[in-house]
Amino acid sequence: MTTGWLAAEAVEVRRETPRVRTIVLDVPGWPGHRAGQHLDVRLTAEDGYQAQRSYSIASAPGERPDITVEELDDGEVSPYLAEELRPGDRIEVRGPIGGWFVWGPEDGGPLLLVAGGSGVVPLMAMARHRAASGSAVPTRLLLSSRTWEDAIYRDELADLTGRGDGFEVVHTLTREQPDGWSGYARRVDDELLREVAWPAHAGARAYVCGPTSFVESVSRGLVDLGYEPGKVKTERFGPTGG
Amino acid sequence: MTMTSQTADMRLDGNAIGGLLLGVFGVEMTGAMATCGSCGMRGALAEAEVYVQCPGTVARCPACGSVLLRVVESTERTWLSLEGIRTLELPIATER
Q1: Which residues in B lie closer than 8 A to residue A116 (C-beta atoms)?
Q2: A151-193, pLDDT tens digit by residue?
Q3: Contact, A112 vs A166, CB < 8 A?
Q4: Which residues of B touch A234 (CB under 8 A)?
Q5: B-proximal residues of A, 59-78, CB under 8 Å
Q6: Count of domains in chain B?
Q7: Are A154 and A148 in contact (CB under 8 A)?
Q8: What is the mean pLDDT of chain A?
Q9: Backbone angles phi, psi at A235, to 5 degrees
């Protein structure tokens, strides 16, 4: 952990969806991170004006910190990161930050990951960490997206499922579904949770990340299903982004 | 952590002020356990209700809504109030 700002260079930029890009950062002196942590990004304009935002780290521990950024219509920082930034550009970062919303194979499972939109980013770090460390913890990731096109990491999630090592992904598409879609096509409600979540008696651990209203309804739903409140960890998105 | 403009989503949680608290305390604080001075609820600071749209930042108890802490940053100084926290427990060995 570091409390100071570090110089970072964007070394690769990958488009994930029409509004979302992943930025791979080279950060000399990066102390390493755990799955679920985030970092602060600081941009400085030529006139000295600074803007700072927090982004979840998408990559597994031991790798360079990737951030996955969604462009927000009224955002100040995200349009730059999601559309303008090019490989070779420099920004400043601080982190890693957070030690509560984190998971490692030693924490065990079964593991339930529930994401609304770009809330999948810190959960993807957990899924990648699980795969990279050869963990066999039974894991289900439930991802709620507006459309199939908006489903972040969908190809990689399919690959992770294809490994046959106990990882499953369940999509629900709330706004529009492709022709022939046979998956869920509604918001995550109590019935959907009951169908997808591990039974509470299995001692499952859940991580929920997304907009505040999504996180609160899902975490309430899981506790209603019998999940121990202490095993349901939540992270809400909001106005520190943008 | 991205932004939505919906009013219902203006309320965040303590994860969002991990960087701010790291700057103030010098250690990771989202996993620190705070006991509310009003209702006695004990929980991780990550679980506090956090409002960052105020002048400064306010964290409230998720059980009773009482103010736990307030932070105001200016270019010259950081002002911190812990008025609503009875006790704060920090893990001894926070790795990284």
Answers
A1: none
A2: 999 999 999 999 999 999 999 999 999 999 999 999 999 999 9
A3: no
A4: 13, 47
A5: 69-70, 72, 74-75, 78
A6: 1
A7: yes
A8: 93
A9: -140, 125
Structural domains of chain A ordered from first start = 6-97 (2.40.30.10), 105-236 (3.40.50.80)
Which one, of A215, A145, A210, A217, lies nearest residue A174 by Cα?
A145
- What Cα–Cα distance (Å) separates residue B76 from each residue in A49, B72, B73, B79? 16, 11, 8, 10
Answer yes or no: is pLDDT of A241 > 60: no
Which amino acid, residue A167?
F
Assess contact for A98 and A38: CB atoms under 8 A.
yes
Report how far residue A163's alpha carbon sits from residue A131's, in angstroms, rounded to the nearest whole number. 9
In terms of CA atoms, which chain A residue is nearest residue B24? A3
Among chain B residues, CA nearest to A96: B96
Quick one: closest CA in A to B22, which residue? A3
C-alpha–C-alpha distance, residues A219 and A90, integer Å: 38
Q: A156: closest CA among A40, A55, A17, A49?
A: A17
What ipTM score was computed for the predicted complex, to two decimals?
Answer: 0.86
Cα distances (angstroms) measured from residue A89 to each of A16, A177, B21, B84:
19, 37, 29, 43
| CA distance to partner chain B, nearest, from residue A168 (Å) | 24
Kindly state whether residue B51 falls inside one of the protein's structural domains: yes
Condensed to tens digits (0 to 9), the pLDDT of residues A30-56 reads 999 999 999 999 998 889 888 888 999
Residue ranges making up the domain that contains B79: 5-89
The CA distance from A152 to A20, in Å, is 8
The CB density around residue A72, as the number of other CB atoms within 10 Å, is 19
- Residue in this structure with the two tokens 């999630």, named with its chain if needed: A157
β-pairing, A232-236 vs A205-210, is: parallel
Residue A97 touches partner B, C-beta closer than 8 Å:
yes
Q: Select from B3, B6, B94 the Cβ nearest to the Cβ of A75.
A: B3
CA distance A219 to A101: 14
pTM: 0.92
Q: What is the pLDDT of residue B8?
A: 53
